[in-house]
Batch of 3 targets.
Target 1
Amino acid sequence: QSTWGNSGHPGGKVFSRAKVPGVDPSTLQVGAIVTLGGFTYFLKEVDERTQKFMETGESIDNVTESAQQLILRLRDAVNVKWSRTTEAYRHYNINKKGIGLDDLANMFRECEIKVPDKEVLMRVMDALDQDRDGVLSLQEFVDHLLKQTLSYSRMPVAQNEAAVRSYQEVREEQNRKEEADRVLKLFISKLEARRVFIVDTFRIISDRSVDGLIGVEAFKEGVQNKLGLALKPSELDALVYRFFYIPGLNDY
């Protein structure tokens, strides 16, 4: 239900949408005087959706159905557009305080999905905002919009999914590990005298992240620009491999 200022009701809301016993719908016409929830109202106008309901008897619950359909379409669009969940959330979380109603409307616009009106948009928000704080947290964005699981742990690859690899593939991976170990030693030697500096640098990067995690691009930015290490691109890639590689995952 929309919030109306100076309505004389706490929170600006009269009552949530619900069936009211003892009321004949045929009497709810423009110009009628009705009593609902202990208050008397003069009906001076009707919106298009309610008018349609009065004329055809089509259930207003279709608003809820429309909201669920929009959530499904938005879920598909966001999953196609973004490969990384946290990057998608950061993009739509414009004010860094959670995805609000305006951010949600912007999300629909970017995904080229038309929302009929603000009431339907609010229904979508109500369905996703489980703690009713008016914004979508990262957890709500992942759990209720994308229907994924937000995991902070590295999951091992199932044994039955392990592929038989050739000798060349095994040797290439071994070489990458050896190079990564070499660059890690170089990385440590360069920073041996600046331990406090490196800790503070990555703590700042972590604090600026929505989920407190440091992604690949943020890590590379920190190493090259914040710490000022003159690493070759191949050495930086090896360092990323050393810290971020998960066996069985190509996109790390």
Note: The first strand starts at residue 33 and ends at 36.
Target 2
Amino acid sequence: MGCGATEDDPRTPEGPELMIHGVLTKGEFSEWHRIWLANLKSKTVDDIELPLTVGDCCDASRTRVYQGVDKPNEFLIWMHDADMAKIAEQMGSEPFDKLVTQPLGLESTVKVLNSLPADGKDGPDKADLCISVPTKDREVWTKGFLEHAGNKSPDGFELPASRGELLDDSRTALFKATDDETTVSFLLFDCDLKKLGETMGHENFGKFTESIGELKEGKVIAIQSDPPAPDVAPAECEAEADAEAPAEAEAKTQA
């Protein structure tokens, strides 16, 4: 995690990239974002002591927050070098529940982000994707992105398929970066990776993305996957063993 483990920072080096998709059913994004920024380096927010800072859970310098475009009270966090155990500890704590989950009605989904297979042969047939794209002009890019939803010829470029023919576009979610005016991120669901690859590899797709100001350098495409089940802590293992011992002893006695 981060640059590596040290005596002062015992976190696992090179932790995974995580995506957190949050929906605020009660509060406003601005209030959640204020708390997030305050928690970057401080455990204490609004006189409530949280277990950890954001920086304790990931490489905060590389982590990025996006706000929903059509749904402004949704957000996306790309976390780098994430410590999933610490994130679970933070979000599952009573102070976090008091400060964020209950008052803002936070509902969240956590996914691990993995790179697409380079050759396209070893990946799944279908997958959910999380994509980040730098642009020259976010409004121009968004117009073209939305046009491709049900149109095989967005901005006049004939493509093999519209986006709606490649995935479940009813679930597509678009977000804008909070720290600049040009970067976007979006979630795609139930993507046919073979057809998507054929479309993105078509010569007109490159012309189309160039026409709407998409920048190749810095574009990231990742597959969403469920986080692995947490390991049982040694103390928990010992507690389970202590609880099972009397039952095993009684069974042997009866036998």
Note: The longest strand covers residues 106-115.
Target 3
Amino acid sequence: VGDPPCPIPCSDPVAESWSVVSVFAEAPVRARWARGRVLGGGWRRRGRASIAAPATWLRERASARSGPHRAGLPRLPPRSSRRTAVRRTSPPATMSGSGAATVERLTSAELLGPDVAGNMALVDALNHPSTGTDDVAKTIKALRRRLAGKNPKVLLLALGLAETIMKSCQFKVHAEVGTKAFMREMVALAQGKRGTGEVQGKALELIQQWGIAFESMTDVLPVFSETYTELQSRGLRFPDASKATPLFMPPAASGGGGG
């Protein structure tokens, strides 16, 4: 397949030299014209080869881009609007979805030790005004599931996390921890049914700490004191109460009395 015949007659040297220049100048245009015919655009007829062809071709291509799509397909919105649409439809992160996952991460057996910064970040999330009681309940439920395990390392990390949130969180967290379901797992650990002696000692320490701190709030949170008194009656040996670490009572939880 060769180039189409030169449209300018070559009868004299001047015209002949001009035809050579025009052929070389129009070679890229012809290539674009051939491509345009395949894509549905470009020049309308093959015989349209002249010096004005490039300008005409550019005008036609500009009108084709600004007008209706030649294939009849809808045009996509600009990239910025597409990104905005995706960003608006993405669901926001909620405490109910991240609280349980955070508990799993903070009590993972792969940790070398307690993640103090992560524990305090969870405390801040639980104390945030936008965190409702349902989100707190799901987070504490995830912590209770960790206390029901058998891995001593996980149990110690879970007990340490429970101690941190009880010392630094508000009444809405205390109310979820002070339930029979949660304290039942604490009693099992305190009796030595799961874990090691270190786990049992930590569980006894926390039960004693919470029982003394909420002793004057039995009308609101009676489970802490009831659990402590019941285990004392069973003969379990608690640490020396005079050497026990006092529980820090935040203002939201100390309205009915201090510990």
Note: The chain has eleven helices and no strands.
